[in-house]
Amino acid sequence: MSEASTASKEIPVGGMTNQELKDIIHTLRQLEANWNHKFHYPYTFINDEPFTDEFKETIRRHTVSDCYFEIIPPEIWNKPSNIDPDIEREKISKLTEKGVLYIDKDSYHNMCRFNSGYFYHLERLKQFKYYWRFEPATDYYCAVDYDLFKFMEDNNKTYGFTISLYDNPLTVETLWPVTLDFLKENPQYVHPNGAFRWLTENVQHPDYTKTTGGYSTCHFWSNFEIGDMDFYRGEAYTKWMEALEEAGGFYYERWGDAPVHSVGLGLFEDRSKIHWFRDIGYHHSPYKNIPNSDKCNAPEDSGYFSPEDVYDQNCLSNWIRLEMTNKELQTY
């Protein structure tokens, strides 16, 4: 993630390892060239292990912005004590047989849980309101000539995204039932203008909603996201996260931070405060959001999805159709 100066309320943040230095430099160069050379927001780099001197020195050679290197405390990174190892072993074995990616990697589960419910409590980030998450080996193809953080604040936006996808329903099989149980006990947290139709759409993948007990698996791809951390710090999201932690799905399944953020936003926030950054050219293999604009310089064709992906993976069309207001539609 990256961050802004301590005099402001915003910060870019990236989670990565020492081994990803080459890939983060690839991304950092594009962020600097296409946006941050105008604004000089500082960056915060996050790791569960100490960064090497080589990593820090190389990063600093590629930006004039301040850089901070933070270590995640083990108490918010490591597997919590309420996870039953026998239950975990049994469930992971079954999902491994079904070919679920990363299901046997503890570090992946730790990362998903940390990004879902803990990154915004890091000491470095407590002073900040907005964050921009970036990841190694991603591409930013378009020049952005305005301050994205100021846009979020001036337009009262809580969250911004570029790509929306369906998830593997096996990874979130009980996320929705656990959430519904929470809402039965806490109906006051549901926002009356939430993105309910997007969360429960069952036309493209009725088999997904059947597996998950009603959740479409639509989510904002969180490897790019700009958000208001005060939303996550709020009572509704905090209480819900406590229920998710108790259920253990970050380890018994593979609940990702993308569906967790998305379900939380869709239920507890006004959908009009969620913004599709159509003008940000972004690529994270294999998907992309690249406007047909003279501000963009991409090696591949502009577009949002290749034709073969539209049916199987793309949930952006549902967001546009079901949740965007007429005013928002008229701006595109």
Automatic annotation (TrEMBL):
This is Mannosyltransferase. PANTHER family: ALPHA-1,2 MANNOSYLTRANSFERASE KTR1, MANNOSYLTRANSFERASE KTR4-RELATED. It comes from the Eukaryota. Gene3D superfamilies: Spore Coat Polysaccharide Biosynthesis Protein SpsA, Chain A (3.90.550.10). Keywords: Glycosyltransferase, Signal-anchor, Transferase, Transmembrane. Coiled coil: none annotated. The active site is at residue 225. It is a single-pass type II membrane protein. It comes from Pichia membranifaciens. One of its GO terms (molecular function) is alpha-1,2-mannosyltransferase activity. GO terms for cellular component: Golgi apparatus; membrane. It is found in: Membrane.
